[in-house]
Design brief:
Layout: H1 6-18, H2 50-74, E1 81-85, E2 88-93, E3 96-101
Antiparallel strand pairs: 1-2, 2-3
């Protein structure tokens, strides 16, 4: 019977991660380069079960779709920031702040 220590499993996980190039797409499915996604967090623990991984990937797809829609509507520049304040709406576009009564 062969027993693997925790260190052996960590070495295997590190070897698997070492195969991913920093400029290759991240294998989490985000569509980002590894260095811009999970490469930022070299000590992050991998998902322990498929349910959490599926939920993470679904959330990433939703965020990416929202980002793409926002870029399509507003362009690649600084986003529009809007917030209600008392009975007014305050909107920041670029370096200009606007407000109006609701």
């Amino acid at each position: 019977m062969c027993h693997r220590s925790h260190a052996d499993s960590e070495d295997g996980a590190l070897a698997a991660l070492a195969k991913i190039g920093r400029n290759q797409p991240c294998d989490c499915g985000s569509g980002l380069k590894y260095k811009k996604c999970h490469g930022k967090y070299p000590n992050a623990a991998p998902f322990r079960d498929a349910e959490h991984e599926r939920a993470f990937k679904q959330a990433m797809r939703k965020m990416e779709a929202e980002r793409a829609q926002r870029e399509k509507q507003q362009g690649l520049g600084k986003g529009i920031i809007s917030a209600p304040f008392n009975d007014h709406r305050i909107v920041a576009v670029g370096n200009t702040v606007y407000f109006s009564k609701n």
